[in-house]
Each structure stands twice: as structure tokens, then as C-alpha cells.
UniProtKB/TrEMBL annotation:
The chain crosses the membrane at residues 461-482. Keywords: Cell membrane, Disulfide bond, Glycoprotein, Glycosidase, GPI-anchor, Hydrolase, Lipoprotein, Membrane, Plant defense, Signal, Transmembrane, Transmembrane helix. Its EC number is 3.2.1.39. Its main location: membrane. Belongs to the glycosyl hydrolase 17 family. Residues 367-449 form the X8 domain. One of its GO terms (biological process) is defense response. It is found in: Cell membrane. GO terms for cellular component: plasma membrane; side of membrane. This is glucan endo-1,3-beta-D-glucosidase. GO terms for molecular function: glucan endo-1,3-beta-D-glucosidase activity.
Amino acid sequence: MAETHLPSTTLLCIFVLFGSALVVVESAIGVNWGTVSLHKLSPSTVVDLLRENNIKKVKLFDADPGALRALMGSGIEVMVGIPNELLAVLSTSTTASDLWVGQNVSRFMGKAGVNIKYIAVGNEPFLTTYSGQFQSYIIPALMNLQQSLARGNLEGTVKLVVPCNADAYESSLPSQGAFRPELTQIMTQLVSFLNSNDSPFVVNIYPFLSLYGNTDFPQDYAFFEGTNHPVADGTNVYYNAFDGNFDTLVAALSKIGYGQMPIVIGEVGWPTDGAISANLTAAKAFNQGLIYHILSNKGTPLRPAVPPMDIYLFSLLDEGAKNVLPGTFERHWGIFSFDGQAKYQLKLGLGGGLLKNAKDVQYLPSRWCVADPSRDLSGVANHFRLACSVADCTTLNYGGSCNEIGAKGNISYAFNSYYQLQKQNSQSCDFDGLGMVTFLDPSVGDCRFLVGVTDSNSPGFGLYCRWVIVWLMIYWGVWILVM
């Protein structure tokens, strides 16, 4: 997405101290497993969810040791990620890259280990809003990491990729696609590197954002069910935004001499809440249409019968702690809710079954915190703001599933969200006497008042911190072993 999925653990640690010819293969449907959550399922529960749904590819935004340990022996193909904030040190220090590969890749691989296929070096580092701050680090970091993989006897087994946002290229028509002028040189270097190492180009495509950000964007063009607004490009006609965007990238790659570069869709999806057009019906229509479109092997006008190598749906689970600066829908991309329950009926394959829910999820007791109907709520504003500054209240926004439950309903929703986040601590439902605990579910229609889960957060924080500190010490020239 437009934001960097930097784990909170990293921030805390910092604070504390293919060849030239296309190879036609069957596309696979994977998922992004993001962990910027308020209520986290245990990694083992998530991996069980993946296996139960026959999801064989997963993309992470970091290399959390708890998630990787849970993935050991699963056979699931994994893409681990390096946050943008680590690119600087990895670009300047081979010792740092050796450490990163050793701690986050090598030690988890081997017999009955993790099937790590890709390392995502940064996340959308060329995004326009970053103003080029990560641009100079990419190629040196790739070079250092490639050498580290070679030293670890992983060269060829683990591929380096750089997930790019679709704003890296531009055009009024797909056939005229080109990388942004300021990126042409580095993109040529990047794609040359990828090509020489048989790695695909990874791109994130979001038709929802095109619709969300442009009132003139034809809604039916965002989906796969036909449109009254097709885009004619010479003899080619585009009936959905995904194909148009994909072929714009194909044209851009062709302009720099790599028109046959294999392409992986690193992120694609549709949110279910928090904004107009973000709802269950639209998300199901988009994701199911996309899956059938990809698996039909129709390809696109510029690549007929050659669909993307793989696509990774964004995302597996809702992430209630994500930054909402891009929009309040950011916390609602999951095909499953935070507790691993399927939001809508979806088939991940042409002949497969519907999504299966997570099993053995441990919930807090069935009780909720609501506004006391006997009390005067005129002074509740500060309590409401406090609750929503800590918990997630984005479903109350215009277009959200809880937008029409009334003022008292809004207050109760905020109180309960905070109460569940505090593990139902009795004092967290006080709000100066304005709150009360109820054993009757206050959910209304599509507006769900959640009950928290007791599953603990991912382990491995201490180890993760130590290695971040090691990287920082190397970066600052302080050669002290922290082990």
C-alpha cells in the first residue's frame, strides 16, 4: 500500500537505542499477511488458517521470527520483507546484509524449515510521496543482499524483488505506458538486475484507489463484469482497470527493453469498510472476479494468454492499527476479519470450496461495554475521542458499516472498542460512570460490536530488537557485538 508496513517492534527498537522469454506457468493465488493489528491471532493460528484454505503462497512485510517459526514445515511459499527504514544500512554495509540474511532467512531454511522464495527489498520505495528518500539505496542494497545470499549458498534459491506501486509508471493509454521520467534510469538498473537473476517484477495494483480518489472514475470499470466505459487503445479495448494498469506496466517495461519480464502482483484487493464503495458486496465482486479472470489464463491485450505469474490478495486479515492517513478503509482490506472469520463467500480457485474460518480462536468472554442509557451523555465527547484515539472506530465514518447507528450507538461502539482492546478490564468501561458492561450483544445489522481475542502477540520481540540494534550500530560505526 501507499504506506510502509513497518512493524511497531522495529520502531521501538530504534527508539531504544526470468530470462528474456516469457515462461507460461499457471498463476497462483497468494495472500499478504500483515500484522499491524490491535487484536492479533497467534502465528500458529494464522498458519493453520492458511493451510485450511489451501493457500500456498504468503507475503510478509517483515521477517517476524514468530511468523517464520509458525511457517516451518508448512510447505507454504514465503516472501519475507525488508522495511524501507532498513534500506540505508543494508546499502552501505555487507556485514549488515550478512546479518540480515543469516538471522531472517538462512536460519529458518533447510529440511522441515520455511520455504522462503523471495525477499522483498523495501515496500513501494519509489512512491511519489516519499520524494525519492529511498531511491539511492535500492540498487546498492540489492547488490549487498545478493552477495550475502551467495555467501549463504542461497543464490538462485531465494530471489530478491522490489515491490513497486503503480504510480512508478504513467500514461493516458496502456500502450503509451512509461516509467516516471525521474525513475527511468534506476528502473532500467533494477529490471536489469531482476532479469539477470531470474526474478520477476513485483507491482501493487489497486483499482479501488482509482475509484476512491477520482469522482469521475467509472465504477463499473473497476470490476470484471463488463463496463459501459471501455477504453479503446488502437485495436485493443480494455474492459477493466486492472488489465489497463497491467498493460501500462508491460508497455513501460518494453520501453526500457524488457517487454517480456515476468510480472507478479504483490498486492491487489478491495476493502470492506470505512468508506463509500468499501463494502462486502463490492469486495466479493472484485476479488472473485479478479481470481476467475487470472485463473482463466486469458491474459491481457498486450500479453494474451499470459496472466501474471502470481497474485497476492491484499489482504488476509484486517489490521486495526494501520495508519489511516490514506483513508479510513485502510484497516479493512482483509478477506477475513481480525479473528480469522471469513467476511464473505469467496473461492480462491476455479474448482475450490468457499473460505473456511480459523479454528480454535480463543475469545474473551461474551460481554460488551456500552453507554449507560440512564446517564446524561452530554459530557461524553472527550471520552469518545480518547477511546477512538486508541481503538479503531473507522467503521463509524461515512460509508462505514456502523455509520447509521445513531449518536448513542456511536458512543457505545467507541466504548466497547476501547474496552475490548484493554482485555475487558473493568476500569476501562468506566468513562466517569458513563459506561456499563452488558451481556447482550449490542451489534446492529451489519454493524458488529467485536469481542477481543486472547491469543498472544507474536513472540520473538527481544531477538528482533537485538538485530535491529546491531544494524544500527554497524550503520553508526559502533562495532560492539550485542548478543
